[in-house]
């Protein structure tokens, strides 16, 4: 049995997160429940910033808010001095409601609508990461009409296959994202941006994928970009002030995962950029990154109540919980693996191997296969670790299951930051037929 994040066990054998008993939180807020240890998020955020400071490199660390967006987490990231990467009008709206400084908001995405771009320009956001020619035309039009400048980065695809799940690969040539770096698209986009009166081209952006455990892909992406920059400098005199190398740093979901420390990714990519810029006699650009999972992933834990169980003789025992693919779709979508303990018997040794089923009407709604657990009964609390990224943010109302609440813990205190959805919430958008 392995505990993740900063979880510890108290003298009653109960799991504690951020100094608060999970069993007390279950009594107060019910299950299913997402619990975050915000001290751990702060530690991760500071870690990234300190690494850049130690290396003397100008940087912006933007939290990729798709990992978990809510007003409270945006307020926390603001307190920590991070920037924010949003990918939709909804995330931008939430950021503005959280009074996140608009000059530190970056807008990504492969099909931003005119309205979303208008919202970004009107609110003077820090930069738009332009993904394609359609968007470039839209931005040129909007900024021309408004006579207002906007800073942009061009998202390029460097042609790199990072080693991760196919669905979360993004840097390869055959990708829906970005301007291809090799076939002239990126160069054309750079020329068009320089020609557009109100577009201020800050630099280039790339993001090669998510849950990556090796530094090779990042280093290679950095090298390919700098090589192009050197070509462009002599041909067009364009020198990017910023290179954004995206996010994607992997975390440990199970003992099989072997991630390197987040700072190591940063150090290696900076060395790669330093090496290449020196080789071509270029100035060191600012390096921006946009991590999501590595900031919030292992700080989140999901708590469920165990309900029914079913024995398939000689094959397996199923234990069902009161959530599932509606609050954590990652096992169903990516065959993602998790570890868990019984929160009210957290110190007990495993006695049996069980498989954790969700409550949705789908055979594929399985949260964990073959999990060693102490003997359990209905009413016990299951704590699934490392659900802080792409858990709540990908939650849905399949089977009209209300989304769970989110609680932040720190220094022995808990605070509700998203309330539980109610049945009334589920029908608020419904209109009567007659
Ligand atoms: C453009 C972009 N930036 C940042 C991220 C954050 O990735 P991660 O949560 O893996 O750090 C993603 C997601 O893969 C992304 O698509
Ligand atoms: N949602 C994915 C990551 C996708 C990242 C967005 N580009 C996950 O849960 O792993």
Automatic annotation (TrEMBL):
The keyword rRNA processing does not apply. Residues 33-388 form the Orn/DAP/Arg decarboxylase 2 C-terminal domain. Its EC number is 4.1.1.20. Pfam families: Orn_Arg_deC_N, Orn_DAP_Arg_deC. Residues 40-296 form the Orn/DAP/Arg decarboxylase 2 N-terminal domain. It is an enzyme of class 4 (lyase). The keyword Lyase applies. The modification N6-(pyridoxal phosphate)lysine is found at residue 66. Pathway: Amino-acid biosynthesis; L-lysine biosynthesis via DAP pathway; L-lysine from DL-2,6-diaminopimelate: step 1/1. Substrate binds at residues 293, 330, 334, 362, 390. Pyridoxal 5'-phosphate binds at residues 248, 290-293, 390. Keywords: Amino-acid biosynthesis, Decarboxylase, Lyase, Lysine biosynthesis, Pyridoxal phosphate. Transmembrane segments: none annotated. Its cofactor is pyridoxal 5'-phosphate. It catalyses: meso-2,6-diaminopimelate + H(+) = L-lysine + CO2. Belongs to the Orn/Lys/Arg decarboxylase class-II family. LysA subfamily. Specifically catalyzes the decarboxylation of meso-diaminopimelate (meso-DAP) to L-lysine. PANTHER family: DIAMINOPIMELATE DECARBOXYLASE, GROUP IV DECARBOXYLASE. Homodimer. This is Diaminopimelate decarboxylase.
């Amino acid at each position: 049995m392995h505990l993740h994040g900063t979880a510890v066990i108290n003298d009653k054998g109960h799991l504690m997160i951020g100094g608060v008993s999970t069993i007390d939180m279950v009594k107060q807020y019910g299950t299913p429940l997402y619990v975050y240890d915000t001290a751990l998020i702060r530690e991760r955020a500071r870690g990234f910033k300190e690494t850049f400071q130690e290396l003397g490199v100008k940087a912006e660390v933007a939290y990729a808010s798709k990992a978990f967006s809510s007003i409270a987490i945006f307020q926390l990231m603001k307190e920590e001095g991070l920037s924010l990467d949003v990918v939709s009008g909804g995330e931008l709206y939430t950021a503005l409601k959280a009074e996140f400084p608009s000059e530190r908001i970056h807008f990504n995405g492969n099909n931003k609508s005119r309205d979303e771009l208008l919202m970004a320009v009107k609110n003077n956001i820090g930069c738009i990461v332009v993904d394609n020619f359609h968007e470039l035309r839209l931005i040129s039009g909007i900024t021309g009409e408004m006579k207002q400048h906007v800073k942009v980065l061009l998202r390029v695809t460097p042609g790199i296959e990072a080693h991760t799940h196919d669905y979360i690969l993004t840097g390869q040539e055959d990708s829906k994202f970005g301007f291809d770096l090799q076939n002239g698209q990126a160069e054309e986009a750079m020329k068009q941006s320089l020609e557009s009166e109100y577009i201020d081209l800050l630099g280039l952006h790339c993001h090669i994928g998510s849950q990556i455990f090796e530094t090779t892909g990042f280093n290679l992406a950095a090298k390919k970009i700098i090589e192009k920059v050197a070509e462009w400098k002599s041909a067009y005199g364009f020198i990017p002030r910023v290179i954004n190398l995206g996010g994607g740093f992997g975390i440990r979901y199970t003992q099989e995962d072997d991630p390197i420390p987040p700072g190591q990714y940063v150090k290696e990519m900076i060395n790669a950029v330093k090496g290449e810029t020196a080789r071509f006699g270029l100035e060191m650009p600012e390096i921006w990154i946009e991590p999501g999972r590595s900031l919030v992933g292992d700080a989140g834990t999901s708590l469920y109540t165990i309900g029914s169980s079913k024995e398939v003789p000689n094959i397996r025992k199923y234990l069902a919980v009161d959530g599932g693919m509606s609050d954590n779709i990652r096992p169903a979508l990516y065959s993602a693996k998790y570890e868990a303990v019984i929160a009210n018997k957290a110190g007990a040794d495993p006695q049996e191997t069980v498989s954790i089923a969700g409550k949705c009407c789908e055979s594929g709604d399985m949260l964990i296969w073959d999990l060693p657990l102490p003997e359990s009964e209905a009413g016990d609390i299951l704590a699934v670790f490392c659900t802080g990224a792409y858990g709540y943010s990908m939650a849905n109302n399949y089977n009209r299951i209300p989304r769970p609440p989110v609680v932040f813990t720190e220094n022995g205190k808990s605070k509700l930051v998203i309330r539980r959805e109610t049945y009334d919430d589920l029908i608020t958008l419904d209109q009567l037929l007659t």
